[in-house]
Fold this protein.
Amino acid sequence: MTLKERDKKHIWHPLTQHKLHPEAIAIVKAKDCVLYDEDGNEYIDAIASWYTCMYGHCNDYITDKVSAQMKQLDQVVFSGFTHEPAIKLSEELIKILPDNQEKVFFSDNGSTSVEIGIKMALQYHSNKDNKRNVLIAFEDGFHGDTFGAMSVSGLSVYNGPFEEFFITVERIPTPNGSNNLDVLNKLKSIIEKNKVAGFVYEPLVQGAAAMKMYDAHGLNDILSLCKENNIITIADEVMTGFGKTGTYFASHSIETKPDVICLSKALTGGLLPMAITTCTQEIYDAFYSDDIGKGLFHAHTYSANPIACTAALASVELLQSEVIQSNIKTIIESHKDFGAKIVNHPKVKSIRQTGVIFALDLDIEMERYGNLRDKLLNFFMGNGVFLRPLGQTIYIQAPYTISKKQLDKIYKTIEQALEIV
Ligand SMILES: *Cc1c(COP(=O)(O)O)cnc(C)c1O
């Protein structure tokens, strides 16, 4: 029996309606930018497996460090114990994060890093005897699939059965340059009418909203209004972090810095699941007390797993290397050229780019998981390129190690796909 057949017996896949999509492709190997399936097909991983493997799959530098760490220290409880990989990683991260970040809290997936950010915001006010019970978020943001994260996510088409259990969230539209004043006014009126604890947002690019890009000045105005009102700002950089937008973090391109930053996905270069929530000294100080109940009583068994920390440390080193920084510049220029070439194509409605994130909207209405989307996905896979269209959007977010030849193949396949839609 093939893997594909054996899979069906016991496995329940994420984000999958099994009746409509009964088959999964069985991957047996991945190296650098290529995935290999059990039938001998190869696919260029043009979305870096949900933007995780940014230094290429099974990167030798990362796997060597991880192999050595595995023989030294595998796992230890992180309450009451500490270790070099976590300490070194926090030192290196703090150096490249926005200046106001001081403390590092470990967990194991992106949704949870947001959950922790939300808890920090709610408990910050509660610890100061000023309970606040409302959060603010963008209309079409995505922050994960646990309850707090689902509550702040606006893209909740499939969250119907859970909505009545959500945290109270007020929503504002993303600023686009021409609606900035309206957005600010809406925010003002929400702040007047509610006790707002925090504002959760994806800086510059909203990943699951199909790489929607919005106005940085508008965001800056929102953040400063939040600061004036002592609302904790939580930047969800799970997708945008680690070089995607051209700077180490998207928050570097916005003047007003967040109080809390959520990280995961590319944090370990795709090798192991891990997440981090960082915060300012001021937030930390609100939990520092003789009263044990004012501490942040949140833990995960695998918090700061030494092997995951080692993968993250190696990834952070790679990110800062000359090779990767120069590759990032090359990819940015390459996408620009492709954009200029394709922007006037009759089937293309618009293009957009921030850093290495490139997206184009088709001039065709398409359901998020409809037939046309399946047709496109199958076309890409049939041509050896893993691209996962989101509604009418085709986006590229390839590993930083992608070659010129592989990029050209991705572009060519997209151009060919325009002929079949
Ligand atoms: C993927 C993602 C999450 C959720 O991370 P998981 O590790 O899948 O739980 C949260 N926020 C953003 C912006 C993401 O892209």
Summary: The chain has a mean pLDDT of 96.
